[in-house]
Amino acid sequence: xxxxxxxxxxxxxxxxxxxxxxxxxxxxxxxxxxxxxxxxxxxxxxxxxxxxxxxxxxxxxxxxxxxxxxxxxxxxxxxxxxxxxxxxxxxxxxxxxxxxxxxxxxxxxxxxxxxxxxxxxxxxxxxxxxxxxxxxxxxxxxxxxxxxxxxxxxxxxxxxxxxxxxxxxxxxxxxxxxxxxxxxxxxxxxxxxxxxxxxxxxxxxxxxxxxxxxxxxxxxxxxxxxxxxxxxxxxxxxxxxxxxxxxxxxxxxxxxxxxxxxxxxxxxxxxxxxxxxxxxxxxxxxxxxxxxxxxxxxxxxxxxxxxxxxxxxxxxxxxxxxxxxxxxxxxxxxxx
Length: 336
Ligand code: AHM
Ligand code: MG
Known about the structure:
Helices cover 29% and strands 24% of the residues. By secondary structure, the protein is α+β, with helices and mostly antiparallel strands. It binds 2,5-anhydro-1,6-di-O-phosphono-D-mannitol and magnesium ion (MG). Magnesium ion is lined by residues 92, 114, 117, 281.
């Protein structure tokens, strides 16, 4: 791209020329992007900044929190609570929703985030990221409660993520295509580096934690067995496997060059729909994937159609290149 377009310029032009982004939402996204820049600074310091290792606490999911999980959560809360655009926030790292304190003005938007996705990769210097989702509070009632957050993913007005990797990149959608920005560290600003991102409909690359294979159900076993059988198997082509163990980074690869990401239901905890969280991970990333021409299901239904019943609800996830997602979903439906 010859002309450098900053995130601010991009957002203002979208608002002015296409009318696709209300001003309040634009300002909210700018604040989230600023918070991501601060998180990137902490991530980059690593062992020099006393940010590695565990914090000695557990989150609501019973997972051990890393210091950076907590730092990233605090940065996002502090940055967003005074802007006047939000009614409340919800985070993978907090049990209850966080209301905007009374001393600040309140807006109509709801912000959800996984402050630092891929926590197991923090200490080993592998890509991690922040995932976020924006909803609008339903009109007609005062105040805000957990129920306001329980909207299907199709109601998201914006979603995005920031990957802290070899580059820091921000990926965004307002329901009108997907754009990517790269952080220019000298200038301190995000610069537009990809527009109208499209995921190829076909792929020969899958991302799944293969060590869990024996715990999957039959349709899942079938799909992966057929991929592994390669050129002499029923698919008549060889597949490649990639697994970063940071969903945000795996999805970034898929948005960049195609692929399918799967985190399925498994037999060890049959009452649990999946490992990943619907509101903080599956919904925003499914929104981006669909906006780029891909598909996202839980094996049976479109993820964005699911009606959440709990803030920290979990879900099985299959997303990415459309034809592969359709195939693995068909295998699940045929097995019913
Ligand atoms: P996190 O939000 O605590 O980091 O957990 C979610 C992560 C995903 O990013 C990733 O795809 C998955 O958990 C990795 O799971 P596994 O430990 O099975 O590799
Ligand atoms: Mg996560």
